[in-house]
Structure prediction request, 250 residues.
Amino acid sequence: MSSDQNSAGIPGPQAGQDPGDSPFRVEPTPRDEAPQYVLPLVARIERAEPPHRTDALETAARAVLVMLGDERSLGDGEWAQAMRDWQDARIRKVVRRARGAEWRRAEALPGITVTGKSAEVRVFPPIPLDGWPKDLAKLQVSGTDLDDPEPVPPADATAPVLWMSPDVDMSAGKAMAQAGHGAQLAWWELSDDERTAWRDAGYPLSVRTPDAALWRELVASGLPVVRDAGFTEIAPGSCTVVADHPALRR
Prediction:
């Protein structure tokens, strides 16, 4: 299968995709037979001023959307083939952390830096699972832990919300990758015009954790749900994110 291109040149859902052939299913699917790629993200985490956890999650989700909508990812763009190969297989994302000279070396590689209120995340075009550039391969991938120093305000219900499971304990890096998965599922579900509007608005979104009762409602609501494949940290099949976009609530 190959990625469909809509009239706006923005990547859409997989052409002719069987609903059971999800990039996040636990059971083997035809996606497992394709060459496996990963979308690398690097979060800047300086010792003296680490980013706030929620802002880091939101910035990582926007970084994924920026990569999906970038002209270099579309049509005959320089990243388009890698993006198609990645979206034809399991949708893997790996978040690593960098500071100081490590961050400067990461910034020198082709990619896009997205800045939040306190966070900076650089997203790179997909690479083969075992093909990490040396300046990214040496970065730490596990153990990233961040906090919110102040209470997080309620989500803006007029904008997209990525609801994180209250039942699954994840490191900040894992949660950033899951937020990116949720943003991508929402993107795939939108129409051409809805994607364009989201892109033109700068991909506004928030990441929040609901209480247990609301989480159960969200999972059963018909909105896109990320069910993790269980490659790292959490059990296969865990529901981690519900992607709630106003256009998908109708």
About this structure: The CA atoms of residues 6 and 12 lie 6 Å apart. The chain has seven helices and eleven strands.
